[in-house]
Amino acid sequence: DFECGEEVELSFCKNGQWQGAAFHVRRELLQGRALFPHVLLKNCSVEFNFGQRPQPFCPRPPGYSFLQQLPLAQRVRATTGPRCKAECELLMMVGLPAAGKTTWALKHAAANPSKKYNILGTNAIMDKMRVMGLRRQRNYAGRWDVLIQQATQCLNRLIQIAARKRRNYILDQV
User: Which PANTHER family is this protein grouped with (predicted)?
Assistant: First the structure.
């Protein structure tokens, strides 16, 4: 709700049931930037209706309008990825361990947000492998070979998937 005062209110309904306000963001923090819907899920599927379907899944709250109903002149386009494989970039890091490859890759990705680089490497995978919020390296004492083997298998699968996608990648691997 951009019209509720000094703050923008983000709230949710699930199957027509009001879930209440989730966040309040001061308008000046947005600096005129648009907000985009985003959902991150694991091991489940979900379907959304932003107005592209003729009938809503459930009753809409009063005053609610679908994103699809917003006039084109008021819509903001997000950055787009490569239109074809020929436009995709693959940067392959070369260097010895601890030479600064990961540091450079992270800085380069941050300096070029429009490229939406995906960093592929066992370090990136292990960083996301957490148990109770702790990195797995700390929980795998004495079993480093098992951890690196799992991360390498994940990386190999991600490289197979990446070959079919139109995205920009940085391969950060020794």
Answer: HETEROGENEOUS NUCLEAR RIBONUCLEOPROTEIN U FAMILY MEMBER, HETEROGENEOUS NUCLEAR RIBONUCLEOPROTEIN U-LIKE PROTEIN 1
